[in-house]
Design a protein that fits this description.
The protein is of the alpha+beta class. It folds into two domains: 234 residues, no CATH class; 182 residues, YVTN repeat-like/Quinoprotein amine dehydrogenase (Methylamine Dehydrogenase, Chain H, 7 Propeller), CATH 2.130.10.10. Helices cover 16% and strands 21% of the residues. The chain contains seven helices and 18 strands. The strands form six sheets. The protein has a four-stranded parallel sheet with strand order 1-2-3-4. Strands 7-8-9 form a three-stranded antiparallel sheet, with no helix packed on it. It has a three-stranded antiparallel sheet with strand order 10-11-12. A hairpin with a 5-residue loop joins strand 5 and strand 6. Helix 2 runs parallel beside helix 4. The protein is elongated. It starts with 7 loop residues before the first helix and ends in a 23-residue tail after the last strand.
Length: 458
Amino acid sequence: MAGIPDTVAGFADALLHLRDRYAPNVTMAIHASMWGSGEDVATSTDPSLDATAAAGSTAAFLDSAGITSNAYGSTWDLVFHDVDDHDAGWWEAQGADNAGFTHWWDPANHRLPDFARWLEWVATLHARTGRPQVAWQVPVGNQQYLTMNNTCGHYQDNVAEYMLGHPGELEQTGIVAVLFGAGNACQTGYADAQHDGVTNNGGRTTSDPGGGCSSCNTRESTVSDDDGGYLRGAVAAFEASATTSPPANPLHQGYWLVGGDGGIFPFGDAGGFGSTGAIRLNSRIVGVAATGDGRGYWLVAGDGGVFPFGDAAGYGSSGGIHLNRPIVAAAATADGRGYWLVAADGGVFPFGDARGYGSTGGVHLNSPIVGIAATADDRGYWLVAADGGVFPFGDAAGYGSTGAVHLNSPIVGIAATADGRDYWLVAGDGGIFPFGDAEGLGSTGAIHLNSAIVGIAA
């Protein structure tokens, strides 16, 4: 770690550097606190508290600790934040609640603090960091079972109920996982930590004024879990309801053609999400990347401006001001929750949950970069130069480089096979060059094409 500054930011950079050197397959997360900006989004009843500004302040701090860039290695993969270290009923029992301080969130989103403001904070943090979000240390208490009588191990809360009842809201803000668990002793758990077996409080309900509960917990427990079995039942129901059927518009049954001015032309079952025209784009369109379910896409302008359509997430637009050189290509992650932008000199810029595998810079590439293809598991990608030079990153297989000497004409694109283990290169005159186990389906040559080839899609 020689040369890394002896500072908080340097400490973060050093952790990432150690991961890169000794455990490159490890996913690294950094923590964000809802009170980190100086205003506690989780407890404040102040209507003037700006959740977006608070999240922006926190994101700026995380940015200084290696979210966006790290001169000594890679960047963070995830952002974690803890919801609370006690159940709301426990806090209430301590007499801590008053007009300006409560740990009960309003599920109807009519009074503060509420779930809507929390989700606004998360969504902003997700947009600003470009990283998937994970909520952890989520209180396990509920307001359904008789066992929830606000004693040690059986304190009420409503966060778990809301999260499991509104998974779509969480997903839209960038949350990819929720980790339930008590933060301190005596808090509600999903096992029998109190060793008191099946408990139903003698059949008596428990009202909780702070949580808006008037004898609401009426269900009888049949298991020894301290929460009455709510979490195990609700999670099982959630998993059972999850569909495994293919989406209505699966990828590869249609495609879009994109004009340089942003005009969109759908074919097959590709959704017709309209056309931007040229009038409001930053600069000429140079690429398009589809979401994993084929229900949306991003258009990418030469200066890095990004325009989402359909269900593509709006991860913002880089603009052209901080990129190495003009953007020439884009590739989406397999789950459609992120993408990479690629500059002509090989600079790579990840957005959403796309991993930051670094940037080649322009100094050692054969010729300008013209395309990118991602592996199926999103753990790597290939960059391809105009002369056929191929540069693997992450777990992309290194199948060598063609060089320019035997190609029909300059390379203009690359496409990966469906399993993400191999690829084809295509030249401007239609020459096709398979690598790995990509099938050699012949080459058109230039003689019968309308005009020069500019791209390829598998």
